[in-house]
Design a protein that fits this description.
By secondary structure, the protein is α/β, with parallel strands linked by helices. The chain has 2 domains: about 55 residues, no CATH class; about 180 residues, Glycerol-3-phosphate (1)-acyltransferase (3-Layer(aba) Sandwich). Helix content is about 50%, strand content about 15%. It is built from 10 helices and 7 strands. Helix 5 links the parallel strand 3 and strand 4.
Length: about 280
C-alpha cells in the first residue's frame, strides 16, 4: 500500500508541474490531456518502482536473511501485484492465532505459485523463508530473491540431496528464522489436497519447533480473471501446535493430523463459498 501511495503522490505532483510549466495545453483545461499525463506518470513510477525492487534485491542479497527491509519489500510488492493489479480480496481468519515467537514452521496446502506471497502479506512481521522447488533457484531474479531471504532449494526426488535441504532448513529454524513448507510437494491448482509427505514434518520435529497449520482456499483462477473483477481468496490460521504436544509422535501421524485439520476447513469453505 505504501508503494501505491508514493506512486499516486508523485504522479499527481508530476502532473501538476507539467501542466503549470506549459507542457500541457492549460488554456481551456484539456482534462483528457491531464488524465493522459497522469497515466503516463503512473506508468513511469511503476517502472521505476520495479527497477528499484530489482536493484535492492541484488544489493541486499548477501545481507542477513532476516533483514526486515527485504521482507517488507516483498510484502509491499506482493500487495501491489495481487491486491491492486489482480484485484484480489484477501479474507483472513484466525489472526488471533499468530505465533508468539519465531521458532515455528508453517505447513499449508499448495494451490498456486503465489501462495507464499499471501503468507508474506499476512505474516509480514515475521522474516519467513520457504523450502522451495529447485527450478526456482535457476530462474533469473527469482533465485536472488529467494536466496536473499534464506529460502532453501529442494529437488523433487526423496534422495540424499533432498535430505540435505531439510537438514539445512532445520538449522535455519533452530537459529530463529521461521520457515514455510508445502507438504504436498507440488501445486494442485485446485481446492483438492493431495497426500502429505510425512518427511516434510521432520523440519518441525528435528528443529524442536511449533507447527502453524494454514489452510488456503480459492487461490487458483486469479490469472484468468486478469483484474477485470474482484477475486476472493481465503486463508485460515489454525492455533499453533506446540512442539511439546507432538514430540513423541511419528511424522506419519503428525502429517495425518495436520491434513485432517486442513481438510475440515476446506470442506467448510466449499460449503460456504462454492468452488468457482
Amino acid at each position: 500500500m505504501f508503494i501505491l501511495f508514493i506512486q499516486l503522490l508523485f504522479s499527481i505532483i508530476g502532473t501538476v508541474l507539467i501542466t503549470i510549466f506549459g507542457l500541457a495545453p492549460i488554456q481551456g483545461i484539456d482534462y483528457l490531456w491531464i488524465v493522459l499525463i497522469f497515466i503516463g506518470n503512473m506508468i513511469v513510477m511503476l517502472i521505476g518502482s520495479l527497477l528499484d525492487f530489482v536493484i535492492l534485491t541484488y544489493v541486499f542479497e548477501k545481507a542477513k536473511p532476516t533483514m526486515k527491509l527485504k521482507h517488507w519489500l516483498i510484502a509491499e510488492f506482493g500487495w501491489y501485484a495481487f491486491v491492486f493489479f489482480y484485484r484480489v480480496r484477501l479474507h483472513v481468519t484466525g489472526l488471533e492465532n499468530m505465533p508468539k515467537n519465531q521458532r515455528f514452521v508453517i505447513f499449508s496446502n499448495h494451490i498456486e505459485y503465489s501462495d507464499p506471497i499471501y503468507m508474506k502479506l499476512i505474516f509480514r512481521k515475521y522474516p519467513i523463508s520457504f523450502v522451495a522447488k529447485e527450478p526456482l533457484f535457476k530462474t533469473f531474479f527469482v533465485s536472488n530473491l529467494l536466496s536473499g531471504i534464506g529460502c532453501v532449494s529442494i529437488g523433487k526426488n526423496a534422495d540424499r540431496a533432498a535430505m540435505q535441504s531439510i537438514l539445512e532448513s532445520i538449522k535455519i529454524v533452530k537459529a530463529g528464522q521461521p520457515m514455510g513448507i508445502f507438504p504436498e510437494g507440488r501445486r494442485t491448482y485446485s481446492n483438492v489436497m493431495t497426500d502429505f509427505k510425512p518427511g516434510a514434518f521432520k523440519l518441525a520435529t528435528k528443529a524442536e519447533a511449533d507447527i502453524v497449520p494454514i489452510c488456503l482456499y480459492n487461490m487458483h483462477g486469479i490469472y484468468h480473471n486478469r483484474g477485470i473483477r474482484k477475486h476472493d481468496v481465503y486463508v485460515h490460521i489454525f492455533p499453533t501446535i506446540s512442539y511439546e504436544s507432538i514430540q513423541h509422535l511419528d511424522t506419519v501421524t503428525i502429517a495425518e493430523n495436520v491434513k485432517s485439520l486442513l481438510q475440515g476447513k476446506l470442506d467448510e469453505y466449499l460449503k460456504t463459498y462454492p468452488d468457482n
